[in-house]
Amino acid sequence: MIKKTIDITTKLDNFVLKNRMISTTLFAMKQTLPLLAVCVYARLISQLILSPNALFVTLFDWRLRIPAIFQLQEMLSLLEVFVLMILSATFTKRYLSVRKVTQTTLPTLTNFLGTYFLFLGKGQTPTYDTSQYLLVILLSFISCESFYFYQKFVSGDNPQPFAVRFLIWAALILLIDVALHFAIQRSVVRSALNTLLSNNFFTTFIGLVIISVVAPLLWWLGIGLPRELINNPSTINAVIKNLDTILTNTNATLPYPTNLYSVYTAFSLFGGVGSTLAISFILLFSIRKKQQHLGMLSLLPSLFNSNQLLYFGLPIFLRPLMLVPMILTSLLGTLIGYTAIVTHLIKPATLSTPNTTPSTLVSFLGSNDSWSLLIVVIIFALSVVIYRPFIVIETSEVSYEK
Amino acid sequence: MRNKVIIILSLLLMAIIGFFGHDWVTHTNNNQAKIQNSRMAPIIFIPGSSATINRFDNLLSKLNNPKSTHSILKVQVNTDGKLVYSGHIRANDEQPFIVIGFQNNRDGYDNIKKQYRWLNTAMTDLQERYHFRNFQAIGHSNGGLIWTGFLENYYSSDNFNMTTLMTLGTPYNFSEVTLARRTVMLTDYINKSKNLPKGLSVYSIAGTEDYTDDGIVPVQSVIAGKYIFQKHVKAYTQITVSGSDAQHSSLPENSEVVSLIQEYLLTKTDNTGRPTP
């Protein structure tokens, strides 16, 4: 049964990798990896040491006076967008080359700038999640295809790369990006999602199971997740009510013992969405040097719940081979965590923990119950067992690189 | 070997964060529990510019007359952010008086900005010491501006619950006699008024000596507070007091003002000093 699942997934993966758009995307992601690594580590340093509510600043009550901290954070946000701009430009250049288009400078520049307009307005920093990879790739893809057909349609003999007819095309693409900028910036979707996740349905078994499956699926698809599903969901009603109850009376019965924080964050987010900490761990023991390096590079951010390096480096985006174990481990964490809480084997996490607390420690710190650590170890060990066969196949087959 | 080192270092890092994180969580949540369950709701006073922490002594004596039921604590915030405490809060006093003053008590918008930053330092320290969440506030003259600046820039409803603010002769538009000319400070305060707590009741008291001002602050400048508070807080009430004691510096001792504080801010107590239901 397990072997059959792995075989089917591998076949599906190979089929997907033959797709021109996906193989180009994965190529572009690998090309962008060094810049992303700089970005991820810069953000990690900010979250651990530099920002006013950084983890170590909070834990050790450091009173650091970092000069121009807001400018630094602004630059960090710009760097995040710059990663997407490079991703889009690399994708465009590669995709058009595959499509045998020789004049790639203008479309590459257009998509590079278009991504900037998509995420940043004048004098703005992105206040929302920049992990909208699907959107970036789809827009770049549509732009490439339109350019491919447009240049076939309009080009005469030996056209100039910056001829007016091509500039008109570039202006249209940039206009679309600017229009979309205002569409995706609307906070309606975010507040609607927050309201939805605050619904008591997500304190029930079915609700939590749905979240543990849907969250890795959306993330795998490259759709930016609401912050409640990536970090501490401390703004969720059930979490606030639990905290109020426990602060008023330590021995009181909790209104919502199982919720996004006590189950999903505490047991299904080890290393980020899809419990990918296990992947970094497995890669350390890979026979390939490149994979070992990726394991080492991604381990530290993974400990603090950031798995973007694996997303680009492995890669994970749209790969069926990665989706199956991601959903399985996420679901497994939720199932074990939920069972342990409802059977009173462990206390649920209710207390507030500092920002950027590793999710492997959330259950222990949030509940003050050492038995939670045992559950964490069991879930992590099982995650390694689930991921291992898939990673072994992944590290032995890198067909999209051919 | 290399992998072993990496794994051991990772575990060590987790152990350090786990150890110190446990301390932080315990300390923070104990503190939060005390704050949550605290019955203390002090009235916190801030004097105007050039005044010291002793500015309200006469007012506090009147409020504590005939029986001293409210203990008095005074805090001075020095320019380096250091706090100097005098007086004490009696155990079980549910409504102590706290006066916060500043070493740099000079006038001017730049100084007011510094003063509300120092006020935040004092409030954080007071909460850490006395574990209260609910409080009421009184600001005389620029003291009202400092409270408003604090509310708009530092106050968080996660940490505090300010129920009432009473400002006495507060010049929201400095010395401008017409509402048509708005100072930079008033414009800033109006622009940030959405940050004001929604459940706050504000009483703005103006004094009139000669129908136009209280000797120092134009009535129109006090009235300009409506542009900041109206529609952004639960209730905004403008009250004008007149007569011989309505002069700007006499406002805190004005018998009408004392009555207003007793009516709107003080908890009614029985003969034993306990709050009546």
UniProtKB/TrEMBL annotation, chain A:
Keyword Hydrolase: no
An example Gene Ontology molecular-function term: protein-N(PI)-phosphohistidine-sugar phosphotransferase activity
TM regions (residue ranges): 72-92, 104-121, 133-150, 162-184, 196-221, 263-287, 371-393
Keywords assigned by UniProt, alphabetized: Cell membrane, Membrane, Sugar transport, Transmembrane, Transmembrane helix, Transport
InterPro entries (UniProt xref): PTS_EIIC, PTS_EIIC_3, PTS_Sugar-EIIC/EIIB
Signal peptide boundaries: none
A Pfam family recorded for this sequence: PTS_EIIC
Compartment(s) of residence: Cell membrane
A GO cellular component entry from the record: plasma membrane
Predominant subcellular localization, coarse grouping: membrane
GO terms classed as biological process: phosphoenolpyruvate-dependent sugar phosphotransferase system
Membrane topology listed for this record: Multi-pass membrane protein
Keyword Phosphoprotein: no
Domain PTS EIIC type-3: 1-390
Protein name per its UniProtKB record: PTS sugar transporter subunit IIC
Organism: Leuconostoc pseudomesenteroides
From TrEMBL, chain B:
InterPro entries (alphabetical): AB_hydrolase_fold (IPR029058), DUF915_hydro-like (IPR010315)
Keyword Hydrolase in annotation: yes
Keywords linked to the UniProt accession: Hydrolase
GO molecular function: hydrolase activity
UniProt-recorded name of the protein: Alpha/beta hydrolase
Originating organism: Leuconostoc pseudomesenteroides
